[in-house]
Design brief:
By secondary structure, the chain is of the alpha/beta class. Among the domains are: about 130 residues, Rossmann fold; about 110 residues, ANL, C-terminal domain (GMP Synthetase, Chain A, domain 3). About 25% of the residues lie in helices and about 25% in strands. The protein contains 15 helices and 27 strands. Helix 1 packs parallel to helix 8 and helix 4 crosses helix 5. The radius of gyration is 23 Å and the shape is globular.
Length: about 550
């Protein structure tokens, strides 16, 4: 048994053991230093153009951290990261944390308008972008906000490594990550995740031993976007905690990802339903997954037919449930080592759940109820003042409804609120309605989710034209695509004469999911969603499954 004590930049870390790295630290970025000390020559990050060991990754993270100290940033300042899956995302993320700053990962498919909203709300003091995102970032960034583009001279100055990282003690309750989620109120809100919350969820996961969610010997495929909490902590964070190896791809391609699995002997996949649906359509997918030990699925419910297809091929998919506010995993089938189609399992060790009615009273056995959760992995409320976080007893209402089956496994049955789930990414109708309402010729709009065989749901907009305007559905589609990220933009638009209202004037959405028999103009491009695009719109776990 190897035992060592190392002094890192935040505090002394006792790190006995070798099988699974034992970590007692306060800063999430310390995980990289521990892995570099115990497994220096083990590959940490594999990208198409290079393989980076843990020792090399630690040096790169130290360089970014040191470079950030030269930017006159104060501890706790927010640094936005608008990057695709890449080595630079990893070094930027851990470098920001090691510098005592707060990481704000932003969806790299956002438009300038959406980026501006997050940058303004978070009060970011610096943005790290790449060539693909820098145009939208510079157009969306508030005046005077510095933007560093990966590969530029400024990036090279930032990462030269001549300035040592700062030396300070991290408070585990200090903010580490600010992730914007549709939450439960419409406009995206920043979920405040501390170092304590992120590290706690990793420890809760690793208390499950058989099957273990991850081991140091695992080679983990990460194609889910790392700006989502699922890939950010339950995949990348767990890789660092275990000292495992991550094979990173910026986009999901069914054939290409199977080739990565074969070439790198991948053993562990942090997946989402669109990935498994796409793989299931490839005749020899199971043979090409011969090295796989663990298949995890989250962010949305998995179709039973797909689960059964993998099971019949000898591949078990372990479903789970979580949300951004829980950093993210709450329950998983691995807890009881029994995988069942449609079940998201039991709560992780150290996590408590209850099913309650509208009055907060636990429901009778077999009845549906809202999932409420308590644990050290919970967030500290929404930015900036911690509003709407866990209550005085530590409980947080998820807004998701479930039933516990005879074995106590949770089965998700509904979402209490109107969130639309597109490839596992939460889309809030009110946000879409506010954008489309600004389109020329639009008098009124309602947005609903409709069932889709590949993405779970698709976004549908029902629009009323302004008086005297010959509004066409194609015009609305084009406007939405220009002002919204791809996964948010409606794929179905109907122009109708009027929307149904209640006596108080509220739009009644109950019948709007069905095609309108008297629509004046209809556009439906939802059939183009037959190839799930995980790179653009894949799983974010502030949704019914993680």
């Amino acid at each position: 048994m190897l035992a060592l004590v190392l002094v890192c930049h935040t505090r002394t870390i006792a790190a006995p053991g070798y099988g699974t790295l034992t970590f007692v630290g306060a800063n999430l970025a310390d995980l990289v230093q521990v892995a570099a000390t115990q497994r220096p020559d083990v590959p940490a990050i594999v990208t198409p153009d290079r393989t980076t060991t843990w020792a090399e990754l630690d040096r790169l993270v130290r360089a970014v951290s040191g470079g950030l100290t030269t930017r006159r940033l104060d501890r706790g300042d927010r640094v936005a990261i608008v990057l695709g899956n890449s080595l630079e995302f990893v070094t930027s993320y851990f470098g920001v944390l090691r510098a005592g700053l707060v990481a704000v990962p932003i969806n790299n498919s956002y438009t300038a308008t959406e980026i501006d909203a997050v940058l303004t709300s978070s009060g970011a003091k610096l943005v790290i972008a790449d060539r693909q995102t820098s145009h939208a970032v510079r157009h969306g960034a508030p005046d005077g906000l510095p933007v560093i583009e990966v590969g530029s001279d400024e990036w090279r100055r930032l990462t030269v490594g001549s300035t040592p990282p700062p030396d300070f003690e991290t408070d585990p309750e200090s903010l580490a990550v600010l992730i914007y989620t549709a939450g439960t109120s419409g406009q995206p809100k920043g979920a405040m995740l501390t170092h304590r919350a992120l590290l706690s969820n990793l420890e809760q996961l690793l208390r499950v031993q058989d099957p273990a969610p991850m081991t140091p010997d695992d080679v983990v495929l990460i194609v889910l976007p790392m700006f989502h909490i699922y890939a950010l902590n339950a995949a990348l964070g767990l890789v660092a905690r275990c000292g495992a190896t991550a094979v990173i791809s910026d986009r999901f391609d069914p054939e290409g990802s199977l080739k990565l699995i074969e070439d790198h002997r991948v053993t562990n996949i942090a997946g989402a339903p669109p990935m498994y649906i796409a793989w299931s359509a490839i005749p020899d997918f199971a043979a090409r997954m011969g090295s796989i030990r663990m298949l995890a699925s989250g962010a949305a419910p998995l179709l039973p037919a797909v689960y059964d297809q993998f099971a019949s091929a000898g591949l078990t998919i372990w479903e789970g449930y979580g949300m951004t506010e829980a950093a993210p995993v709450i329950t998983s089938a691995i807890v009881t080592a029994v995988s069942k189609a449609g079940c998201v399992g039991h709560p992780l060790p150290g996590v408590e759940t209850k099913l309650v009615d509208d009055a907060g009273v636990e429901v009778e056995e077999g009845d549906p109820g809202e999932i409420i959760v308590r644990g050290a992995n919970l967030f500290s409320g929404y930015w900036p003042d911690g509003a709407d976080g866990p209550d005085s007893d530590g409980w947080f209402g998820t807004g998701d409804v479930a039933i516990a089956d005879g074995d106590g496994d949770l089965r998700l049955v509904d979402r209490r609120r109107d969130l639309i789930l597109v490839s596992g990414f939460n889309v809030y109708p009110r946000e879409i309605e506010m954008v489309i309402a600004n389109a020329p010729g639009v008098a009124e709009v309602a947005v609903v989710g409709v069932t889709h065989p590949y993405t779970g749901e698709a976004v549908k907009a029902i629009v009323v034209a302004s008086a005297g305007v010959d509004l066409q559905s194609e015009d609305v589609l084009g406007y939405a695509q220009k002002h919204l990220a791809r996964f948010k933009a409606p794929t179905i638009v109907e122009v109708v004469g009027a929307l149904p209202h209640s006596v108080t004037g509220k739009i009644k959405k109950g019948g709007l999911k069905s095609p309108s028999p008297d629509a004046k103009s209809v556009s439906d491009i939802s059939d183009l969603l037959t190839e799930p695009d995980v790179g653009d719109s894949a799983a974010q776990t502030d949704s019914p499954s993680s």
